[in-house]
Structure formats: structure tokens, C-alpha cells
Amino acid sequence: MTFVYPFLYPLTKAASRLLTLAFFVVSISASSMLQAQSSFEGVVIDAVEDRNQIIIAPSMDAEAATHRTVHVGRGDRAIAREGWQIRGEIVPYAGGERLQKIFPNKPEERAVMNRLDRQLQHDTLNRGSRVFRGIGEQAPRFALWDQHGELFLSESLRGSYSVINFIFTRCRMAEMCPAATERMHRLQRMAKEAGIENFKLVSITIDPEFDTPGIFTAYAMDREIDGSNFFFLSGPERIAANLRAQLGVLAEPDEEEIVRHTLTTVLVDPSGRIIYRIPGSLWEPRVFINQIDRHRESRQP
Questions:
Q1: Which residue segments constitute the domains of the chain, with CATH numbers given?
Q2: pTM to 2 decimals?
Q3: What is the dihedral of CA 283, 286, 287, 289, to 10 degrees?
Q4: What pairing do the DSSP bridges indicate for beta strands 264-268 and 161-167?
Q5: For 132, which DSSP code?
Q6: Whole-angstrom Cα distance, residue 143 to residue 62?
Q7: Under 8 Å between Cβ of 94 and 86
Q8: Do residues 230 and 185 touch, judged by C-beta distance below 8 A?
Q9: Are strands 161-167 and 199-205 parallel, antiparallel or unpaired?
Q10: What is the C-alpha to C-alpha distance for residues 275 and 162, in angstroms, rounded to an integer?
Q11: pLDDT of the chain along its 301 residues, tens only?
Q12: For residue 99, which of 71, 131, 121 has the smallest C-alpha distance?
């Protein structure tokens, strides 16, 4: 026989009521957040002068009455331009609205990206356990968006020596992404001083959910990086994941570090072939300059 002490019943009942009330409050809060946040697809009408705000509308033909002024990050404000087709999320902000997670949304560009995404996924699956591309192999083909909000095709690297790595802007480990970006920046300056023409640097995000073109623009601005030949790329997670797999970078979500990952930097020659790779972030920029010089010498008659 089971005995229930009388004094436990009121406590259990009260606790039950508290739990029910807490669940109700959490449910209401979650529901309010979902209602407050809304997706947006449309076009930039204009940027507000001297403010981190832009004017947007659902479509190119929208009437002035449908225009709305929203707050944006300073990176998004820097690259916003009239007629730019975008998608994002609108949330309440400072008595108004904020448009965040802004990505380009031009149908023709998305079609190209989707086509190359399917090809890249198919290639990744076909390579199986040998998905990792080694020295002597062609770099994978892909399409992503750069920090200027433009479609970036891997074909644009042809004819140039290109250095490719993977980072994310929220990385807090000084010896990882920040160190890698600092070295890429130094490499950019050294290549210019050495008179190396047709030279490009590419950093692909490991955190595509957060690293939008606007986020990367602000990231480059803070570091005074010349964006004419240094591109920060983002886009769908599947594309980023397949590129990581094919270029030998491991990554997984982490509660403390956001993403726990390895680092690899590769050098691609003008024909698109991988000719050098180095793990980690503590390499010296001079290494890549030397590799380019050696490759050039080996091609001379």
C-alpha cells in the first residue's frame, strides 16, 4: 500500500500551478516573438543619408504608400543601393523596425547558385571518402555572394593566383580566424608590394547563418581591408559545408565557441589547380609569395 502524506498535497498542487503559469508565460513570449519577427522579400528604394537606415518596398512596382524605412547594420547600409533585390528578417527595433540577415535575392543569381550547388553536392557525394581534394587537383566550382552583395563565381578566379581559406566573423579565439584574417591581409599587401598581378584572396564563411554580405562588409571595414581583390563569401549552408569537405576543413556547432573548426589555406594557380596548402592559421605570408614565385619559374621555357 502507498501512503501519501497530507502536507505534500498542497505543495504539489501549488507547484503544479506555478509550472502551468510559467509554461503559459513562456508560450506567450515565444508566440509574441514569432509574431514580431517577419520575413521580407523586396527591393531597396533608397538609403537614408547619414543614418543606418534604408527604404524598402515589397517589389519594384510598389506604390510609395508601401515603402517602409528600416534600421540596418552599418555594413548593410554601406552596400545598399537602389534597385537591389534582397530578402531578410524584420524585427522590432528602437521604436521602429530593423531588417537583418540580409541576403541578395535576384532570381537569376539564385538560379545560377542553385545549379552550381546541385553540381557541387553531386560531386561531393560521388567522391565519397575521397572527397578531400589534394595538391594537383582542380579546385571545386561554386557560386556564393561576396561582401559587396554581388554573385561571386569560382570561374572569376581563373587567370589569377588565388589563396582560399575559411573563417567566421564571430570567432573569439585570437589564434584562429582573427589570426588567419590578419595574415591574409598582410599577404594582400605583400603581393601588391611584390608586383604580383592577377592575385585574389577568398575567405569563405563557416557560419553562413550569421555572416551576411553586410556583416562581412563591416568586418572588412573594421580591418581596413581593400575589397578590390579580397573577397569574403557567404551563402547557403550546404554550399559552405561541401566546400569545407572538399578543401579539407572540419567544423561542428559548439556552445562556447559557436563553431569548433580546423583551418586550412590553399593556393590555386591560374588554371584552377591546387598547388599548395597549409594547415592552421600561424603561417607566414611570405610562404605563399615564395610558392607563387616557384610556380612561375617552373612554367618558364
A1: 38-104 (2.40.50.140), 107-299 (3.40.30.10)
A2: 0.86
A3: 140
A4: antiparallel
A5: S
A6: 30
A7: no
A8: yes
A9: parallel
A10: 10
A11: 443 333 333 444 444 454 444 444 444 344 444 447 899 999 999 999 999 999 999 976 667 778 999 999 999 999 999 999 999 999 999 989 999 999 999 999 999 999 999 999 999 999 998 899 999 999 999 999 999 999 999 999 999 999 999 999 999 999 999 999 999 999 999 999 999 999 999 999 999 999 999 999 999 999 999 999 999 999 999 999 999 999 999 999 998 899 999 999 999 999 999 999 999 999 999 999 999 999 999 988 7
A12: 71
Q: Are residues 67 and 55 in contact, defined by beta-carbon separation less than 8 angstroms?
A: yes
CA distance 63 to 155: 39
Taking the alpha carbons at both ends of the chain, their separation in whole angstroms is 97
- Whether 101 contacts 218, CB under 8 Å: no
Cβ neighbors of 208 (< 8 A, separation 6 or more) are 234, 235, 236, 237, 240
3-state secondary structure of 23: helix
Amino acid identity, position 295: H
Question: Exposed (0-12), middle (13-18) or buried (19+): which is 95, by Cβ within 10 Å?
Answer: exposed
